[in-house]
Amino acid sequence: MVICQVILLLLASFPLKAQDLRRMKVTDFYRLGTAELLRLRNTQPEDSVKARVLIALGQRWEDKAGSVKGDIDTATQFYKEAELIISSQQLNNLRSDIALSWGYLYYNTGQLDKARQHLRKAIDFCRKAGYKEQLGTLLLEMAKSDPEDSISLPALKEALAVYSNLQDRLKEAEVLKEFADFHFGKGEYELAEKELLQVLQMYQALHYDRIYYTYDLLSAVYQWKGDFARAQENAMAAISSAEKAGDVQILGLFYWRLAAAYQGAKNYAKYQEFLKKSLLNQLNNPYSALTYHVLGELTEQLIKDNKVNEALGYLLLTNKRQPPLEEHQKVDLAFSIADCYLALKDYTRAEQYYLKYADLIGEGDDINRDLMKISQFYIETHRHKKAEIYLQRILKNPVKHWDLKTSRNLSLLRFRIDSAAGNLLSAVKHLQQYNKLTDSAFTIEKLKQAEEMQAKFDLGAKERDNQLLRKQSSLQREIINKETLVRKVIMAGCIVLLLLLLLLYNRYRNKIKTNAMLQKQQEEIRHAYSSLEKMIGEKSKLLREKEFLIKEIHHRVKNNLQLTMSLLNTQSKYLHNEAAIRAINDSQYRLKSISMIHQKLYQGEEEGQINIKAYICEMLEYLKDSFSSGERIRFHLDVDAVLLDAAIAVPLGLILNEAITNIFKYAFPGTQHGLVEITLHVEDEMISFAVKDNGAGLPAGFDIATGGSLGFELIKVLSAQLDAVLNIDSKNGVQIYLQFQINTVYE
């Protein structure tokens, strides 16, 4: 092996022949060392070889890790020299190469107009000259680099048409993969999955060995869909195919992708294991932009496992082996150090490192994580106003960067900040959203699938162990059988002699045992009966205590709601704003509707059930007294006397409150008389509920969907909570129809 390496070094040291240089492409020159490229630049005449060398030198300086303005200026100078040679020597076959180089440079430096100008000029030339392969390359690279959909999507479509016309299946697959990446970025995961599966089939048919990038992107798609089992499967396939192809330098990315899939499945031991593999792989290979991102995640997980010293060890190792050069790497390192100080309860230094590069944070899913850390830090240190500042920065970040975990943590963060600020309605809303995301049946199902996937990978090893155990057991049984046979032969005679004595003695013992067993069984039956009576008594006592406690809870909730109504009533006496007074009165009516539910619950005999007809009657009497309508508005009730659970009665009561309140306010202005009909019927576990009036109806041009009042918005939200079909009509008054399915109705 050593001899082979020496021979390769000797061969590499010989100057390249002119005929070899002319056959080399720009990518071939890029693989040469910088010193050799500079030598060729100074020794070559003004020809196509020198132009390619200059382009490769420009790319080398542009791609420098942690490149600064001086490196970009040097790359620009090399490109200008190459462009001058190409123009003067009429080297048209190199026009696409220099255009791509200018495009990459200007895209990377944020000069989008200049990048597009160079690429479009080269694209137009290739169209006219008929350079189909170069045209496809320019279009594909423009689509990959340009952030504007209006530019990248048409470029992709034209590139696909070009390669289809050339019958280049490999390039067609590459373009289709870029379509999948585009749709993935737009959150169209189903379409991206379908396209990537098609790409896999095409690559496999072509025996393409760099298929692992497609597996990696497919793993990312499943990760965002919440299908962590398939995310693991495709990440493992990416690792396997990369190892088979010998591309070990890229394994760090795929180890990280597999770690993310295990994190989504809540397998934190595997998550930590593959984060370490990813980090060590990247530290043992050339400079990687992902290194500090992985370091941040590993540090966070080690801190959660109370391994702060180990986390600090990885921070020191990474800083020594690959010091941060880019701004985002400095941000990741600073946040990891801050996390360690926070774990050590050194809040001053933690805040110092969190804020060190906070102003450099832009947008993206990593940014959500960093800004959320700062906000959570200020919440833990009881500085909620500062936490609100960084929360607002997260909310300004595009929603496309919010995955399931980010959305769940963000809901909890907003709940904590709103609670501290006294914004209770908003806090409750965000808490409900957090619980909904946490208890998602979709997530639970995917976790089960991930566990099944892990079980499949472990099954092979277990089966091999079981086979070995079965072989050992078979050998042991054979030895035991032989020994047993010998013992049986020896003991056979003794058994025959003792058999007659045992039979005689057995009859005597059987009688004694039978009597003893009967006595014992009678004693056990008496004991069991006594224990059963005791258990029944204790259960009855517990049930009575439970019923009392539930009624006490409903009583206290009702009292608290009455107290809240009293506070609102007192507050309204000191207000002079009519809109504010009306809002407080509306809130009192809503609270009263809920309060009456709880009053019914603790006064009623049926546990957790409401007589809906009695409740509606009492609710109407209360609202008629509140609005002092007298006999001007008549009510006609056609309501079935059924018992409903509180979970249905509460939203139904609130909907009735909003409907009747709106009728009192707007349906019959002045002294106008009117009729209100309320119906509620139950048939085959389907409730039909309607409130109708013959009043003035909705204003002309009033659109409930876009211009509805708070009352109508509440009716729609509460109807959605009941999974009800809602219909609001405004012919000859206002009619509100509601129909929904329930599981149980008590007559």
Automatic annotation (TrEMBL):
Residues 1-18 form the signal peptide. Keywords: ATP-binding, Kinase, Membrane, Nucleotide-binding, Phosphoprotein, Signal, Transferase, Transmembrane, Transmembrane helix. One of its GO terms (molecular function) is ATP binding. It catalyses: ATP + protein L-histidine = ADP + protein N-phospho-L-histidine. Gene3D superfamilies: Histidine kinase-like ATPase, C-terminal domain (3.30.565.10), PAS domain (3.30.450.20), Tetratricopeptide repeat domain (1.25.40.10). The chain crosses the membrane at residues 485-505. It is an enzyme of class 2 (transferase). Residues 647-744 form the Histidine kinase/HSP90-like ATPase domain. SMART domains: HATPase_c (SM00387), TPR (SM00028). Its EC number is 2.7.13.3. InterPro entries: HATPase_C_sf (IPR036890), HATPase_dom (IPR003594), Sig_transdc_His_kin_sub2_dim/P (IPR011495), TPR-like_helical_dom_sf (IPR011990), TPR_rpt (IPR019734). This is histidine kinase. It comes from Chitinophaga pinensis (strain ATCC 43595 / DSM 2588 / LMG 13176 / NBRC 15968 / NCIMB 11800 / UQM 2034). The lineage of its organism: Bacteria, Pseudomonadati, Bacteroidota, Chitinophagia, Chitinophagales.
